Structures are given as structure tokens and as C-alpha cells.
Amino acid sequence: MAADKTKTLADWQSKAALLSFETRAFINGEFVAAVDGNTLTSINPATGSVLAEVTSCDAPDAERATQAARATFDSGVWSRCHPSQRKRVLLRLADLVETHRDELALLDTLDMGKPISSSLGDLAGTVACLRYQAECIDKLYGEVAPTGDSALGLVLREPMGVVAAIVPWNFPLMMTSWKIAPALAAGNSVILKPSEKSPLSALRLAHLAQEAGIPDGVFQVLPGYGHTVGKALALSMQVDCLAFTGSTGVGKQLMQYAGQSNLKRVFLECGGKSPNIVFADCQYLDAVAQSAAEAIFHNQGEVCIAGSRLLVENSIREDFVARVVKAAEHMQPGDPLDPDSFMGAMVDEAQYQRVLDYIRQGKSEGATLTLEGEANHSQGYFLSPTIFDDVTPDMRIGREEIFGPVLSVFGFDSEEQAIALANDSDFGLAAGVWSQDIDRIMRVSRRLQSGQVYVNNWAGIDQTVPFGGVKQSGNGRDKSLHAQEKYCEVKTVWMSLSV
After folding, report:
1. Is residue 269 annotated as part of the catalytic site, yes or no?
2. Which residues form the active site (predicted)?
3. Are residues 21 and 41 in the same domain?
4. Among the four 203, 243, 420, 483, which has the fewest Cβ within 10 Å?
5. Is 460:433 a contact under the CB 8 Å cutoff?
């Protein structure tokens, strides 16, 4: 499902004007207000205008949803239905998402400020994930243990029960699919808590899930804040598993809540400060520089795997950084509804101010400001690319996740120094290696402490390979067969045989 290049800014503006927003929570097959009647305000970060007042759930709503999820799971209407039935329903959902792709893409663009071209790309990933996980349902087998003649050992995979999925605001619908598709495919009941900064597409998805035939109580959506409904789900004795993408700090809190309640499984995909390593032997420097700029400035830098640390061999550093600057100068923010905009608006004022604070910090720490981005808050929250050179590992801009369009450049003189710099981080989500030396590529890739390593590309992955991190970037894996397996319990059945 390629991005639609035929529509203009005016076309998308016309479509946006016709949108209506679902604002109610989806609990046990019904769209309802919160028990206490509270709402949260959804704002378009590109204009500052109010989009909608959205239901803001809290503990009583979580209790109602978890009870419904548990009852539905225990009934077996989804958890014990024939795998082919779950497959048909999820494939139908994928078709409905594809049919409504323009509407869903618009909801994400209006809600969190990303360019419409990027949102359409997310929708392609969403559909691919739903279809892949649906097709895996009847292709994951159990095992027969190698026993003697007197016994038969079976290893069965069974759904875990109730899964609470807490997803971020930067890729609202795509991150949602990475959690709910494998969890539903495995037969679980799923409660989705979208970010309070981008709940609109998740609520529309609830309509499509109901239309696709997912039974009431199997998929529910609770918009609201992390410290209210998110905490309630994390502490619930009815929830068997937490699946989370977001900051490392919140991930640590969720693990504490799991320990305080029922030792529920917790799968985390947290922050990153990903190193992108360019060796002097790499070819096509203009193309590599373009990729390095895209790796950090795509989606306004609001990307967990953003290549925010650029490590360049000193013999080519000055020339290469100049090429990156040239590429970045063409990546200015624009109207998110314009298909030609590479960047859109920051998600809200808090994130906008956070990034500006880091830019001020970089200046005060003594890094060389090679490209100073412009801040524009006349209407929305727009920031253009910023590049710091001569960054050292002790600087905050070189260690902490900024989650904005700010690139930190480090120099190195040897392979060993590059590896040491890359691994000198609390995070381990992604890394990149650019080189023509296959021996070096294999050596460095093996030694990088990272969940995924991109060689001569950035973020070149699809549904067939797992996604996740090490160290304080989290645990567990999204996508691939590994994702569906993690939402299953492994049960051993030992049968004695007469011989």
C-alpha cells in the first residue's frame, strides 16, 4: 500500500474538514463515557486548535473493561474458537483498515502532527502487521518432546489471558498493530490504552474491529492518562500481561506495578539513543548522508530508533558532516497535510519546549552548533533540524533521548573506538553500520549491544524479523513469529503409556 502521491494539500484539507471523531471509550462492545464523566482535550499541534474532547478513563473504567475481558476470555468465544476463525476475522480487519486508510492516516496526522505521507506509510505497516500475524495463526505448531516409549511429552502453546497494551503517540496506529495483532491472533482478550496525545485513530479502529467480527469484550479501547487508567491496568489482578512502548522511566514504573500486583508478564519497548556509525571506507557519501539525516529527522525526530548519535571516522568527518547539513537543510517542517512536507509539527508544547531545552543545553555544554534549527510557534509547534558536532559522551545531548530533530555527531579514529562509543549508552535499541568491508561489518555487528543492527541502511526491516531492544531499551519483541509466541503460555502435558 504505497503512499498516495495523487492527492494535493487542498485534497487533504477537504478530507480533514469532513472528518468526524469518535471520542468515547469502547468497553464490552459499547461506546461509553467514563464513569466519572471526565474528558481530555485533543489538540492539533500544527494549528493549536481543539480537535475534540475525548473520554478520559480511570480506575472504575479499567475495572469494568478487565472484568469483561476476563469473562470473554473464559467463555472461549475467542480464546478457544477454531484458529481459522480468528484468522478470517483478523484478515477482515486488515481489509477494513486498508479501505479506511485515508481516514485513519488523517486522524494520526491531525492528532500528533506527523506528515500525511508518513501517516500513510504507517497505515501500510499496520495492514501488513495485521495480515502477517493473522497468517501466522495456523502456522505455529506445538512440539512433541523426545521421550522413551513409556511416555508422550507434549508442549502446547495457549493464550495468556487478558493483555493490556499501552502504546505511544509517535506512531499511533502502527504501534497499536504491533501489540494487538499478535496478542489477538494468539487468542487473548486485549485492552488498548492509546496515548492521551493521540487517541483518535484507536477509537476509530474499535469501530472497524467490531465490524470485522471481533466479539464483544475481546478488544476494548480505554483512552486516558497513564497515571490514571494506565496505572489501574498495570495494577489489575485481572490483567495477565502488559505490553508497552514508551519511555524507559514509565517502563520501569510498569515493572514495579507488576510486582506489586500479580507478577504479570511485562514486555517493554523503551527509549533509544541509537548510534549510526560511518566508516571512511563507505561509498556513495551523498546517499549515506541523506540516509543519516533521514534517520534522525524523520517524524520530527520523534522516533525511538532515531539515529540520534552519528559516529563518523575522523578522516572523513568534516566532509561528511557538511553533506549531512546540506541534506538536512532540505528537510524543513511544513503543513502536515501537505504531501511534500518531510517534517510536521512536534506533538505538543511540552515536547516542543523539552527539545528547545536540550538545544540550549548542547550550546552550554560546548558542542559545536553546525546547523541551528529554527523554532516557530506562531500557530503550531514547529522545529527545524539542529546538528551539533564535537559531541562527547559526557554531554547530556549525547547521552539522553531527546525525541526531537537534534543530531549529535561524534568522531572516532579506530574500529575499537567506534564500538566503545556506540556501546557507551544506557540504551540498546538500534544501531547502524556503514562500510564496504564485509569482515568489519560482521565484527562490528556482533559486538554492538543493540536489538537490531542496520548495515548500509537505516530501519530496513519488515514483518518477518523481530523488533526490540536490550539494556534499558527494554525486552520482548514486536513483529515476526516471536511476537505471537510471547503472548502464549507454554504448557507441558506428560502422558504415561502402557508398554
Report:
1. yes
2. 269
3. yes
4. 420
5. no
